[in-house]
Amino acid sequence: MNHPERIVVGISGASGAPYARRMVQLLLAAGVETHLVVSPLGQRLLHDELGMEGLDLAMLAGGEAGGPTPTGLVLHNHRDVGATIASGSFRHDGMIVVPCSSNTLAAIASGSAQNLMHRAAHVTLKERRRLVLVHREAPLSLVDIRNMQAVTEAGAIVCPASPGFYLGPQTVGDLVDFVVARGLDLLGVPHELHVRWDGKAPPRPTAERP
Known about the structure:
- Its EC number is 2.5.1.129.
- Pfam families: Flavoprotein.
- This protein is an alpha/beta fold.
- The chain has a single domain, classed as 3-Layer(aba) Sandwich (Rossmann fold), CATH 3.40.50.1950.
- The protein contains 7 helices and 6 strands.
- Strands 3-2-1-4-5-6 form a 6-stranded parallel β-sheet, sandwiched between helices.
- Helix 1 crosses helix 7 and helix 4 (102-110) crosses helix 6 (142-154).
- The radius of gyration is 17 Å and the shape is globular.
């Protein structure tokens, strides 16, 4: 896969706002034009988990709250199903929904375009482009499992937000980076996150005795 130049990012209402913020930040750092669509529950998620007042694009990209919109970040209204990303003629290199709620998964699996995020995902599938769904829900119902099967058969990749511990994470940020790095890899976006297994486990921290 060539270096992606344009990626669509959807943020829905499942817990995982730090994943969304880090994804946007690293896409922009890689020079990728990033087209963003956020559902109403996704916006509430950003408020509840990041303390974001309104849809603050500067803060979402890792900058100071209330700052200017970062270059290369384009926001689309979730109700505007006539936006550019709703058309197959709009060329992009892939789409990722991070986090992806079970409701959004179900809409994509069933072909129900209730908003721009769903429509953009359907277009990504029909144009045979890369669609990554970072699902964040536990436990899974049989409905979720069947919806995952349906989107996988349609060509999407389900990448659960399941961080690994074999690299010895020390902070929550390390766990976030693990999941985001998998999403970037699946989109073909280069990054410098140190999350690759080299066959050697890190030293175990010495347990403190009471």
